[in-house]
Amino acid sequence: MYKSISTYCFILIGVLFINSTLIAQEIDFGDYYNYSLSVAEQNPGADFEFGTIISGSGLNSLGIANSKVITITGVKYLDVFLTVTADDELLLNGNPGCTSDPTCSIDFTLEAAYANRGSDNIGQARLMTVVSNSSTAQFPVKYRTSAPPSPPPTPVYEGYDPSVFNETAYLYLYGSLNVGNVNSGAYSSEINITIIYD
Amino acid sequence: MKYIFSLTVTLLVLATNIVGQSSSKAVNAEINIEATVIQAIELVTVQNIRLANLEPVNDEIYIPPITSGNAGHMIASGNPNAEIRITYQPNQILTQINGDGLIRVEYQLSGNDLNEQLTSELLDAENRNFSFNIDGDFYIWVGGRVFIEQAKPGSYEGDFTIEIDYI
User: Fold this and answer.
1) How many angstroms away from the CA of B81 is the closest CA of chain A?
2) Does A12 contact B at CB distance below 8 Å?
3) Which of B89, B93, B110 is nearest to B102 (CA)?
4) Domain-by-domain residue ranges, chain A?
5) A97-154 tens-digit pLDDT
6) Topology of the domain comprising A25-145+161-197
């Protein structure tokens, strides 16, 4: 009997330890209300455009100062989890048949940064680590200072309007092309952005 | 014993519930990346202007670019069917390498998207707009008037400037 009890206690303690490593020590406030969250282009209609490039010209970079700016608008005190992924190549006329074809594909290297201090300011941008044209970041919509944590978010109450607490963060997308001796024409690809409240 | 077993199961279920919480909605966006690739414009000289066997008339040698076999011949290549603008500097002075002789040249150019000199069009001194042909080629013939009144026997050198841009 005592052996059985001690065995169960051992299992119980083991289970608690196992689960304690899985449960993050945080509260995801974004889970408790249907908060608004939106993504938009700073300049709608203006694509991430490298312009006209000479075939065989090698590296062509678009710096952060000429980046495509994406706005992320949400509740300022909530964290968002951002994922950015891009294809490795731009393809002639977007044709999938050109994938890995050196005559009609151009290598693309993504770079990204975000600014969450309330203004579109690349001087305040934090660079994101991009590996294999994919990057993730977790940050509050509005930057929190290093001061002690603020009180918890305002509870939902009758007439609660989360848009009052909205703020905009800015995502900067830029990068470079390595242009080999490719055929002339229009090359294109896509960057996918996914944002969710943490 | 039963109590301990129940407690264990309860804790397991509770732990599972906490871990299983997730955010409710994600926002997605797609951004297009675009670039337009063109071919670099290259200019190849097929034949230089040939003056050696020409007889001057009143200290002037005239090489009509459209009809003379002594005209220089160049081939520009670039983006197929692309529109281009050709600019050149018509008046040039050639200077004697070892002496003070001068040769004044007024260049005339003609162009064609076919490799046919006789059907080529004369280019004005102003900009002229043409197109590369389907193979990305454009043919240019270079002639003009050569004034030798200040020329002395010897070798001469000078530049000919032609500029071709995509429009």
Assistant:
1) 11
2) yes
3) B93
4) 25-145+161-197
5) 999 999 999 999 999 999 999 889 999 999 999 999 999 999 998 888 766 666 666 6
6) Immunoglobulin-like (2.60.40)
Q: Amino acid identity, residue A162?
A: P
State the angle between helix axes of B2-19 and A2-22 in degrees (0 to 180), rounded to the nearest 10.
Answer: 10
Q: Interior CA angle at B148 toward B142 and B154, to 5°?
A: 95
pTM for this model (two decimals): 0.68
A78 touches chain B (CB under 8 A): no
Using the 8-state DSSP alphabet, how is residue A125 labeled? -
Displacement of CA B153 from its chain's centroid (Å): 37
Residues from chain B that touch A183, judged by Cβ atoms under 8 A, are: 37
- Fold for domain B42-166? Immunoglobulin-like (2.60.40)
| Chain B residues with at least one Cβ partner in A under 8 Å | 1, 4-5, 7-8, 11-12, 15, 18-19, 21-40, 79-80, 82, 166
